[in-house]
Amino acid sequence: MDNLKGSLFMVLAMFAFTLEDSLIKAIAARLPVGEILILFGAGGMLIFALTAFVKSEPVLSKAMMSKTMIIRSVFEISGRLFYTIAIALSPLSSASAILQATPLVVAAGAVLVFHEKVGWRRWLAIFIGFGGVVMILRPGAGDFELMSIFALLGVIGFAGRDLATRAAPPHLTNAQLGILGFLMLVIAGIIATLYTKTWIAPDWGETGYLIAAIVIGVLAYNALTMAMRMGEIGVVAPFRYTRLVFAMIIGVWFFNEAPDQWTLLGSAIIVISGLYTLVRGNK
Predict the structure, then answer these.
(1) Which of 11, 150, 209, 236 is the Cys-Cys partner for 86 at CB 3.0 to 4.6 Å?
(2) Mind telling me which residue stretches traverse the membrane in this protein (predicted)?
(3) How far apart are CA 243 and CA 224, in angstroms?
(4) End-to-end CA distance of the chain
(5) Can you tell me the distance from the alpha carbon of 157 to that of 109, in angstroms, rounded to the nearest whole number?
(6) Average per-residue pLDDT for the chain
(7) Is-contact 117 276, C-beta < 8 A?
(8) DSSP-assigned letter for residue 231
């Protein structure tokens, strides 16, 4: 185990994911979300398929159609679709902050799905973390951001995906998981396109942004995988929260966002609750 390298790869992955989100948000100013998901997913599938071919690995496997992977795929579709809508229509900083609640939902879901034992302290941290999410959303307030609800729905989808991943067949390669994940993007995009019935041909600038987002997304996925394999989870996982820092910086500099005190306070509560839950879970 090399915790230093693992932590650095985790920070790199979070920075790359934030860049990917930013590029998608920029493209979504004109292109429909469904179209972005289809093109992004198709590009990612192609890269992972080529990776498997170069490594002489099978591109497809029967295990990809197992019951567990089908359940995982359904959650992946919902998570990707709703979170992409969130970053397209709501502030990047608030969407990213809400996304950080995913580990809390996973911890709560593990009790129901895998019957894991969670003490009262972790339950308290989970509920306090959810309070941070409510603080960011501020339902009933005059400045309530309705579109941020999509980020919360995305969190539920991603949490379900992560829980299903725990029961995934262990012999599936990273390339196969990547192909399946990006395929779900295509399906999510088709669902969204059937609803909006809109397709706009991207210009050269948007095409460049899209290609960059695809490449960066694949690099982020690989960096995340390397981080989790190189270092101890208890050491490496907390660096996931650097994504929130990157998102706020990019949101302010490039999208002229101005997170208010409630968003900042709610973000801090989510991060602290998540870190505490992680530490207690490793004891």
Answers:
(1) 150
(2) 36-54, 98-115, 122-140, 146-164, 176-195, 207-227, 239-256, 262-279
(3) 12
(4) 19
(5) 12
(6) 86
(7) no
(8) S
Q: Which residue has the tokens 């706009």?
A: 200
Kindly list the domain boundaries of the chain, sorted by start residue. 3-281
Helices (H), the chain: 3-27, 33-54, 67-89, 92-99, 102-114, 120-137, 148-166, 174-196, 204-230, 233-236, 242-255, 261-281
Residues 197-256 have pLDDT tens digits of: 889 999 999 999 999 999 998 898 888 878 877 877 667 877 888 988 899 999 999 999
Q: Is 15 helix (H, G, I), strand (E, B) or coil?
A: helix
Amino acid letter for position 16: A
C-alpha span between 108 and 25 (Å, rounded): 30
Residue positions counted in the chain: 283
Q: How far apart are CA 131 and CA 125, in angstroms?
A: 10
pLDDT at 135: 84
Closest Cα to residue 152, out of 85, 52, 72, 228? 85
Which of 244, 230, 254, 277 has the alpha carbon at shortest distance from 8? 230
Residue range 136-181, pLDDT digits in tens = 877 655 555 667 789 999 999 998 988 887 777 778 887 888 888 8
| Residue 239 DSSP label | G
